[in-house]
Amino acid sequence: MAQKIQSVKGMNDLLPVEQKDFKLTAAFWQAFEDTVSQWARAYGYQQIRTPIVEQTGLFVRSIGEETDVVGKEMYTFSDSNDSLSLSLRPEGTASCLRAVVEHNLLYNNPQKLWYMGPMFRRERPQKGRYRQFHQVGIEALGFAGPDIDAEITAMSADLWNKLGIRDYLTLEINSLGNRKERAAYRAALVAYLTEYEDQLDEDSKRRLKSNPLRVLDTKNPGLQEICNAAPCLIDYLGEESLAHYNRFKALLDGLQIEYVENPRLVRGLDYYNQTVFEWTTEKLGAQATVCGGGRYDGLIEELGGKPAASIGFAMGIERLLLLVHEYGSLKVNAAPDVYAMHQGEGADLKVMQYAQALRAAGLNVLQHSGYQKLNAQMKKADASGARFALIVAQDELAEGKVTLKDMQGEKGQITVAAADLINTLQQWKNV
Ligand code: HAM
């Protein structure tokens, strides 16, 4: 036998059935996608779909060369025909903004957009952390006020409610101020951390040079004391930034959305300013952040567009659905309404005709394929989870009749005139 070829490490198949180490099924995922589409529509957000491959320069310029995502985790290759460097997108914001600028979507018109799709980061795979993972993202472009910060935060909270996981998530917020304020803070932080440089681990020493705010993000317990005593960004915010942050918090209070202020929340991508937030959980081990985002007021301009203050967030679908699978609620309807069987000469054609008529009337019909005995077909009907079975048999056909069976309820098995088939099943279904 030829050797089997395995999927790429950290990239999952989504199957009709649960896998031992990956519990999410395609039907579960589909139910989530339906919920998300309705949710985004309810808030007036429009969908955008961008390519999975972009010029590498897009991510370098927006996410930042010194970030882990761009510096270490991107899948980058050169197009064979020319020397253009391309990358699989590690996130959706940069692509979304590239498209908005390219197609001039912001001309006189702010935009509320959402997207869903695969992203790629070469991280060490573990539960909740994959190399191909999926995000749902929201981007509100051309809005400067704190009202939109609160709107999108409330919007995320609303989705957690719909998915039955609100009780398992904590909202953490912070403000990064504007560029000038952050620069002043950065200088103070570097001065402080430099005093302790010999006690820092290798990662933090590297970050001290490249991205000092991220040192505070360290998971190393040995560094917690140093980080706790570090200067706080909030103390460097000016009047305007503080007013924006305070109004954001007041709006959250008014909307009864609880939050924890985390002065060390800085996010892992370089484009953020002012409001940042993350939704975290204690239920997923180390991969605690299921959703993160914030303002990126300067990014559109950096990508060649006219200035437009903006904010957004993205949630990791795998992390979210692992949580929903275990603790939440999501109605999955994968089973067919009807399993259609046939037996005897001419019944194979009739069953197809009846199945088409039932589908046209709005029922989902899984038709048995092949010519097995009826009891073998009935076993398949059972296994399919169908609510009803339709049996089209040659001898009944001669009298213009078919048999219906209620597989889960109490209606039993009856024979009806073929002309009453649709009516009867519709009534059964609606009870
Ligand atoms: P991010 O924090 O890099 O932000 O990613 C958002 C979410 O994607 C994370 O909170 C996590 O749930 C999920 N995620 C990230 N990496 C992985 C992975 N390797 N495996 C599984 N899930 C993962 C962004 O991507 C920004 N673009 C969010 C944003 C939109 N900010 C403004 N607008």
Automatic annotation (TrEMBL):
PANTHER family: HISTIDINE--TRNA LIGASE, MITOCHONDRIAL-RELATED (PTHR43707:SF1), HISTIDYL-TRNA SYNTHETASE (PTHR43707)
Native organism: Neisseria iguanae
Keywords on record: Aminoacyl-tRNA synthetase, ATP-binding, Cytoplasm, Ligase, Nucleotide-binding, Protein biosynthesis
Residues reported to bind L-histidine: E91, G92, T93, R121, Q135, E139, R267, Y271, Y272
GO CC term (a single one): cytoplasm
Gene3D superfamilies per UniProt: Anticodon-binding domain, Bira Bifunctional Protein, Domain 2
Family membership: Belongs to the class-II aminoacyl-tRNA synthetase family.
Primary location recorded for the protein, binned into one broad class: cytoplasm
Gene name of this polypeptide: hisS
One Pfam family hit: tRNA-synt_His
Biological process, per Gene Ontology: histidyl-tRNA aminoacylation
InterPro entries: aa-tRNA-synth_II, aa-tRNA-synth_II/BPL/LPL, Anticodon-bd, Anticodon-bd_dom_sf, His-tRNA-ligase, HisRS-like_core, HisRS/HisZ, HisRS_anticodon
Name of the featured protein: Histidine--tRNA ligase
Assembly with partners or alone: Homodimer.
Start and end residues of each Aminoacyl-transfer RNA synthetases class-II family profile domain: 23-336
